[in-house]
Design a protein that fits this description.
Strand 2 and strand 3 form a beta hairpin. The protein has a 6-stranded antiparallel β-sheet with strand order 1-5-6-3-2-4, with helices on both faces. The mean pLDDT is 94. The chain has a single domain (8-158), classed as Chemotaxis protein chec, CATH 3.40.1550. The chain is of the alpha+beta class. The protein starts with 7 loop residues before the first helix and ends with a strand. The chain contains 5 helices and 6 strands, in the order αβββαααβαββ.
């Protein structure tokens, strides 16, 4: 199995194109969600339906990216962060972001992945997804600042073979 681990620049370029905003990116500590600091996870599988990768966004970035792609006012994202969960509109918009984010993995020479499931911040996240999210090794962790909205942490984690 050959899964492409995206570089920070690839992540920045994707978000800049997708959200049509200036994106600043920098290093971050690995995403470590808790009940008080929830996160959204996109689960990506290969052609045999084996989990191959996760993309996790902390609540802040989940709300800001979900708002920015739909041109939703920043105040809606801020309220969602205050309530510690995504609104249905922001969750739906973020699903689109995570669906398009599969292009980070689908590069020439790498195995083809597809988005299998999304676990939104504020909802229950299965224990196996949380365990994979905390895996050290092949991962990229970045802080993303979405111009006009705010910043948060994104983690790309390749699951062990």
């Amino acid at each position: 199995m050959s899964i492409h681990l995206p570089l920070s620049k690839e992540i920045r370029d994707l978000f800049a194109d997708l959200l049509d905003r200036r994106i600043e990116i920098g290093p971050a500590s690995p995403l470590a969600p808790t009940e008080l600091r929830p996160a959204t996870f996109g689960v990506y599988v290969d052609d045999s339906l084996q989990v191959a990768a996760l993309v996790g966004l902390d609540l802040d970035l989940s709300a800001y990216a979900g708002a920015a792609i739909g041109l939703v006012p920043r105040s809606v994202a801020v309220n969602s962060i205050h309530w510690n969960m995504l609104t249905p509109l922001l969750e739906e918009n973020l699903r689109e972001v995570l669906n398009i984010a599969v292009t980070l993995f689908n590069v020439p020479g790498a195995d083809h992945l597809r988005l299998y499931d999304v676990h939104a911040a504020g909802a229950a996240v299965p224990q196996d997804v949380l365990a994979r999210a905390l895996t050290l090794g092949r991962r990229t962790d970045v802080c993303i600042d979405v111009a006009g909205y705010g910043s948060g942490v994104l983690s790309v984690v390749l699951t062990p073979l």
